[in-house]
Amino acid sequence: MAKIHVSTTVNGDAVEFLCNPGETLLDILRNDLQLTGTKEGCGSGDCGACSITVDDRLVCSCLVLAVEAEGKAIGTIEGVADKDQLNVIQQKFLEHAALQCGICTPGLIVSVQALLKENPEPTEEEARYYLAGNLCRCTGYDKIIRAVLDAAETMRGAA
Amino acid sequence: MKNNNEAIAADNYKYIGTRSIRPDGFEKVTGRANYGADLSLPGMIWGKMLRSPHAHAMIKNIDTSRAEALAGVMAIVTYDDFPGVSSEIVAAGEGTEDLLDLARNLMADGKVLYHGHAILGVAAISKQIAEQALELIDIDYDILPAVLDVRDAMAKDAPILHQTMFTKGLSETPTTPSNVASVVELKKGDILAGFAQADIVIEREFYTPTVHQGYIEPHACTVRYDEHGQSMVWCSTQGHFDVRSTTAKLLHMSLSKLKVIASEIGGGFGGKTTVYLEPVALLMSKKTGRPVKMLMDRDEVFKASGPGSATRNWIKVGARNDGTITAMQGKLHYEAGAFKGSPARLGGMTAFTPYDVENMFVECFDVVVNKPKVAAYRAPGAPQAEYAAEMIISELAARLEIDPIDFRLQNVAKEGTKTIYGPKLKKVGLVECLEAAKNSPHYQQPLKDNQGRGVSSGFWFNIGGSSSVTLNMNRDGTGTIVEGSPDIGGSRASMQLMAAETLGIAADNFKTVVADTENIAHNDGTGGSRTTFATGMAVVEAAKDVIRQMKSRAASVWSVEVDTIDWVDGVAINIDSTEKLSAAEICATADRTGGQISGQGNINARGAGPSFAVHICDVEVDKETGKVDVVRYTAIQDAGKAIHPSYVEGQYQGGAAQGIGWALNEEYVYNDKGILQNPGFLDYRIPLASDLPMIETVIVEVPNPAHPFGVRGVGETGIIPPLAATAYAVSDAINAPITDLPCSPPNVLAVIQANS
Amino acid sequence: MPIVDYKVPVSVDEAVIMLKGCNTAVKILAGGTDLIIQSKPAGSDPLTVVDIKSIDSMMTASIDDEGLTLGPAMSCAELTARDDIKSVYPGLIEAAYLIGSTQVQGRASIGGNLSNASPAADTIPALIAIGARCIIAGPDGERVVAVEDFVVGVGKNCMAQGELLKSIQVPPPEAKTSDAYLRFIPRTEMDIAVAGAGVSITMDSEGVCTAARIAIGAVAVTALLVPAAAAALVGSKLEESALQAAAAAASAASKPISDRRGTADYRRHVVGVLVKRAVSIAAQRAQEQ
User: Fold this and answer.
1) Is residue B5 scored above 50 in pLDDT?
2) Are the beta carbons of C66 and C154 closer than 8 angstroms?
3) CATH 3.30.465.10 residue spans of chain C
4) Which of C101, C185, C191 to mutate to test the interface with A (most CBs of A within 10 A)?
5) In chain A, which residues have their Cβ closer than 8 Å to the Cβ of B490?
6) What is the CATH number of domain A88-158?
7) Which of these CATH numbers, 3.30.365.10, 3.40.190.10, 2.60.40.420, 3.40.50.2000, describes B464-605?
8) A48–C101 C-beta distance less than 8 A
9) pLDDT tens across B606-621, in order?
């Protein structure tokens, strides 16, 4: 079985890789591109730990074939901060202690970024439903939702 | 007392009680932090376990020839590759484990005991080839009937899991093997006399299902065996020293030949206090000479890592008409899974401890069934037993027409109350928690139609144990706290704050490092809510050691006796001359005054403070479908002292959410053959962001006299009260008794229909 | 490795040729949220996937006087953002919105939901209720199949190898007609339907129901159109007795199983509750027109 050559961009960088046709984008990101910030919690789209964006659309990278990345723009947690300057969402997660173990955090931050791009002023309920696919077992979500609403407010203020 | 996520200040600390940014936060919000699955090594190969498709079967024959012929397969390991295992009790997690059971759980020894039980491991050059190879292994089974519930397991002609297991704790030595591993009795007073004094007695049997800790990170490790030098294990664990000791014991290695590095850990809740992969991966590495990586898939986590016990607990409580409880009795049956060792006894010790009642009697049964071997799950054993007890307490209060908080206050455990397990309680904060609950805005809020309210207390011991900390001072006066407790929820930040408070140096001057097994002395695992208590105490000891050294250096600089030196806000002061030397100045010149400064705090912490909690839950029930929505929730708990209030609140909220999940929707569903039907997050339904309201918290602070800052430990207690608080709220909303969890829509509708 | 080949046609004709000419088992890839999970087991047969997302007509939707023409591979996220479609078929959009998480909606498509033919698929009862039809392209030309006939069993649709769901068409609704879809799940999100109900209701100016289509999901091997439930409503003013009769008819028509998501009895009961509630929502929407 011949490997397929894929040209794509990841966090703005032009990237090329070889993959088997059945390999998931998650496996390529983690094992071939060493972008281990994207986490695997379930491999079936039920936990959101592997959330990334493909052409600005939020998806689970465990449910995307790597070959489908051809010509697309991939966004991962590694591209959220501007060098060492944290994004507002990341900063608010820290200020609100919105993480305990931190395994769901990269996927959540990518998802929150997508949420606030689509809806800069979400209600608590809208935020909770948008993020229902990002499981967190540590926090009970309270501080995550507070961080999201605070980040949204801060970003609106800055805009 | 202030509400709404504000701590109650009991003292006047400078750093403790502030909400500092956790020192490992940057790595964790940028994806740079490395977890169990994130390490790859040059030349690394992949291992996968073959798991039993049956719940109970003898293995008649294993044929691996087709798999071995597959290109890329490098080794197959089985139970026979262990270098000889005998029964021996070893420390593991919060308790002990039998090494023989541990080995037989890692890979079956001729008999599989649950669906998903590991049988052998395959190592191959890629994960895909390892998975393909598993399909090429042929096993002949002799399928045996499965026992899936304590009732079946204890029935007269039940299939026996272990022919060598005889019930311990019986008055007469048994002559036939049994699925009951042990029976333990706990008592105080005279239970019969207690019930004789009662005007009202309620008894019921309660069921709680098998539940999983549900950490989002599956078990994972990368290992390298080195016959001549030092072998290495990188893994996600709550206790890397325990991984080292059990693995070394199984593989007949000395501790110095095995280094275990704790990766960042993506949740554990007790479930990562034992080993499932690491010794097998090392066997693979030994056979192949290559580093080996093993990752569990999510379905393997559910099928084969330790869940929490399902239970059938019968509780009987008697009270006088004036509200005085006279007797509390329980008969507790805990599923251990395939091997002995359920927390039945801990259930017995905790069930009635929130109450000061003269007469108590509990029998605790540890029962094996054809399900995965249970592991610790946040306050192991307590939620199930306290759920049953608290449901009866709430029902009694209703029958006596006494406010449920007043009823609890009337019978409350307090300093001096003798526990069923022996010692008297020292200073505890249950009265304060109940009063805070009663005064909370939540408790004052009236309910709407179809809503109900539940209140529950919860008790957990918390533990101390062995912790070792080194505090290395740098030449610029900053410091590195080297600890050995994996940071599962922000404990690095607490360590910083305690070092800062002790030394009088601002917290951001300290870096906290979780060291591997060769860079710090032994530490017990992160469990039992012990880290901030015990490791925190070790940090304080190390910081005091640093102060002693700093003072002695200052004394030598000034050529005075050390007892003329005072230490204030990070500065040494000569009381006689008011000369001053800051920590930075002392550190900068340390080479000239006797070498670099490093403090040591190696302790075995005693006196962990029990913690009590009280939760209030309001639910709304859709009476046509049985669906339950949690509409308001408040968690109140005695922290002793909240070092970092945000992470204390986080523990309360997270415990509440897990407990709500346990109460409402979480359960292992097996078919009658013992095959797990829901090994994934799709159908093992943990709470989602959209399922929960904000979880209000009240931090009560009744300091623990045994800790320098009053810490009790906060991690576990919060999962105990939600079960009864939530289930009783449902019961209140539908005006019918709930006994069985979960309160899933079909179960609740069935209760509604049966009572209408 | 079960997926051994990956093809990307840019037209329906090219896709049909690829599908027909394949020498392994072949599956059509749209959002992949079912396909990629199903193809994971190491032991399954070699599979070629044909990714139809580069065919423009598969990825667009249009609504006009002729009704709705829906590209089957368009993601639910794109579809649910279409207010023009939502204003006419709110029930269909509700169903699309309920499929999985935000992440899953970024990929999952209505054509995939339909073709995957899960008994619990949310969009199937919603599509049946509004009378949607499948346009199937194949080597011998096109054919048209009603959605209720498209799904033939658990995981089975009526297409032969070489055929492709080209578009989904929905006729324009009559005046004062609207739809609704409700499903029951244990949590608020992320679960598979325990039962589902898609309804379309037409009202007259007197508040009398003049036409109805009731479809139920997750209570039989395929979604079911329940004419008896509709008959119980037509001619009534949707009084409680009519709603109860429709609910009873839906419960009676269902043939559910017991599994990890609910018992047969529970499903039979809940599907009636959903029908009752969905009818009230759709009727109110119809009357507000």
Assistant:
1) no
2) no
3) 65-170
4) C101
5) 97, 99-100
6) 1.10.150.120
7) 3.30.365.10
8) yes
9) 988 899 999 999 999 9
